[in-house]
Each structure stands twice: as structure tokens, then as C-alpha cells.
Amino acid sequence: MTKSPEALRTISEASEAVGLPPHVLRFWEDRLSFIKPVKSTGGRRFYRPRDLQVLKGVRRLHHDEKMSLDQVQALYRREG
Question: Is 47:11 a contact under the CB 8 Å cutoff?
Fold first, then answer.
């Protein structure tokens, strides 16, 4: 059964969609203030479709364009 495009994704599903391991997503969450997945009362992360778009953008900037995470954070503060 496939999920709706608007459904929340677990960190495993998000990491698969972005193409990076879950520990990288957790690290980015600590380093980048604008990555804020929904958390359950038990602490499980759930990513909205918008979160996945943001993660894919960070991946492109950080991995493909070789920007540091500090540069990505500064760019987000300037341009959103």
C-alpha cells in the first residue's frame, strides 16, 4: 500500500527519499535551525512533504554545490 503524497514520512522513508542515511538527517536537524520535523510524544520524527523538499534542497546545496552547513544556514536566513 502506498502513502498519499501528503502523508507524513518516517525518518527511514525520508532518508530513502533524500538519498542519505537517517543519522545525516538527525545531524542536520541539530545543525540547521530550519529543519524541524514533527515529533511524537515518544520522540519519533515524522517529515511533512515540505520537510522533504527542504532536505532535498540542503542535500543539493551541501553535496552537489559543496556549500558548508554554515553557508546553507546563512543562505536560508537571507532568502528563506
Answer: yes
Sequence letter at residue 10: T
| Among the listed residues 57, 36, 59, the one whose alpha carbon sits nearest the alpha carbon of residue 48 | 36
pLDDT tens sequence across 39-56: 999 999 999 999 999 999
Identify whether the C-beta of residue 33 lies closer than 8 Å to the C-beta of residue 77: no
Whole-angstrom Cα distance, residue 40 to residue 21? Answer: 21
Query: Are 51 and 14 spatial neighbours (Cβ–Cβ below 8 Å)?
Result: yes
Report the predicted TM-score, pTM, of the whole model to 2 decimal places: 0.89
Residues facing residue 46 across a β-bridge = 10, 38
Q: Distance between alpha carbon 17 and the CA centroid of its chain, in Å?
A: 10
Q: What is the pLDDT of residues 14-34, one digit of tens each?
A: 999 999 999 999 999 999 999
